[in-house]
Amino acid sequence: MPRKAQGGLFAWCLYDWANSAFPTVITTFVFAAYFTKAVAVDEIGGTADWGYAISLSGLAVAVLSPFLGAVADHGGRRKPWIAAFTVLCVVATAALWLAEPNPGFVLLALVLVGSANFAFEMAMVFYNAMLPDLVAKDHIGRLSGWGWGLGYAGGLACLALALLALVEAETPVFGLNKDAAEHLRATGPLAALWMAVFAVPLFLWTPDRPSKGLAFAVALKKGGATLVDTLKRVGDYKDIARYLIAHMIYADGLVTLFAFGGIYAAGTFGMDFSELIVFGIAINVTAGLGAAAFAWIDDWIGPKRTIQISVIALTVLGAALVLAEGKIMFWALALPLGIFVGPAQAASRSLLAHLAPAAVRTEMFGLFALSGKATAFAGPALLAWATVAFDSQRAGMATILVFFIGGLVLLAGVPDKRN
User: Fold this and answer.
1) CATH code for 3-411?
2) Is the pLDDT of residue 356 over 60?
């Protein structure tokens, strides 16, 4: 493969490294825990509020992503869309600095994190749709897995930086005031800067589809018409439809696990911010190793089987975590669980890359995002309801298992296409 082509593939993977700072530092570990512990009135109410914010942003993604994906298919290019949503995510994430440790800042924090999460997910629609155009079909699993693996490494590196420069530092950089939680609020600007810097190579080196020369208004009109036509002819895409429904269900479990993993560790097992970052680093190591190792397995046994193995393991280990007592048992179960998170995600997008026709690929990845978000409000909302109803974070986390099992049942009927 020419060196220029290799550089384009590396730059594509590096975008995973760039944007993984947001879910790792903001929505999973540090800022999520800071919000529930220091900004919200109490942890139970804060957990519920966080869940509703993530749910609403997911609903917005579900509504807009298929339509904008269809528009992009008619326009041709994907990178302008990625750029626009990346900028929105960076700006909203940086603004989290404004969320002071006071209940008066709850609404501001939720609006900002919801906006950033919306932009993050929308950028991923167009980013994922680039995958099948970059390599041959027998290498899709590898490129997807390497991207996820590099993403976990990026999350790990950003968390480590946050630990050394902000959370654990006796005197945080720039003289930040710990009494005002400035060392924790600064994780917003840190994650934003990380995304902004490391996203640049994608736009410089990775090839994009050429523009089809359509005016934006024309692309909007054609995109809407194509989406309506696709939905009318859903019977022509029965295999994809079944897969997207299966993905919709088990992705709910994954989304909820990511959104509340740090909150659960902090609230149920008493982890402080320093422990949360160490846990985040450790889980990113196992997840990155799992994604990289399964990259070859995906191309060997197929993405469907890779997803099944991963989700079964997540179900078993997740059930054990709900029942676990003490930090030692939590660590012993959570680290192996991380191994199967990356493969479940990477193989999900590679399976759709095999199933989706080229002419409507971005639209299908929009529907893929829809399947990951159409009911994404259900997972966090059900967790939030169960947490409040039973006054227990364990009861809330147990709801995740229902989504994993339901997704597995439906996935069994999806054909294992690899050609």
Assistant:
1) 1.20.1250.20
2) yes
